[in-house]
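Quick one: co-fold with zinc ion.
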Amino acid sequence: MFKFRSFFLIFILIFLLTACTQDSIIPKGKNDENIVVTADEKITFEIINKIKVPQEKVESIKDELLNAYEEIQNSIHTTYVPSERINVFLNEGNGVSWGLKSELQLYDIKENQYPLVHELTHSLLGYGNNFDKSRGYFTQEGFATYMADKYGENEAYTHKLMKYFIDSNKFIPISKLIDLNQDDAYFRPALTNQKEYTLQWMSYIHSASFITYLIDTYGLEEFEQLYNEEDLAKKIEEIYGKNISEIENDWLVSIKNSQTELTYEDKRKIRSFYTITSVTDQIDPEFFAKE
Ligand SMILES: [Zn+2]
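Sure, here it is.
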């Protein structure tokens, strides 16, 4: 009796498994394997696997999206309402990744260097007015990099790199990075030569280090009031009770006191470190000059 019953149960189990497998093979228009919905059912991500990575990788990207979604939800809150559907493109090669309203364009997939947390932060919290440049780049890029440093896969060197810039006399004044008349040259150069790539990279690290300092020193709630705002110099003074040059000075002192120099091992781990920094002396000194 017992034997018969086990046999019967196994038979039912095999039947169910077969039924499930067959069910999932039936095409339903969109391939479910590439879709993931957040636990609160607010956002559906569809992964467009243009480079045909194995399904295993797609599954791990789905997990990364859900985890990043939770972390970003638990960070700051903005009035921006994200798109209910976000398409996540996995692209060939090492182009420039983007996080827009309803799409993430990710590169560097095979090298595991794709900036998923960074770009998703843009898509979920909003950027400018409908993803334009009307509110600059400083708080948005700084915060996206802060989130990636904290929750992304790769080791963060933001503050150590900042110390490296200060020690090499390649410090960009914050007043320039937040100036809407100058910030395109720093954050959105034409990228036609290495100097422009390097200046852009340095600008991102300056913004990330400064924003990280603000959050670690004063908290997320204060930063929430600054994110994606207009007239940052005035806002900073209102929120933090110090003007931009006072707070910039505090930050620089804190970096000098808390950070050690980049080691050879660090430089080896930071992607393209030597290529990027090989041209810093050729960048127009005007970009680093105090106003
Ligand atoms: Zn970005």
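If it helps, The pocket of zinc ion is lined by residues 118, 122, 141, 144 (CB under 6 Å).
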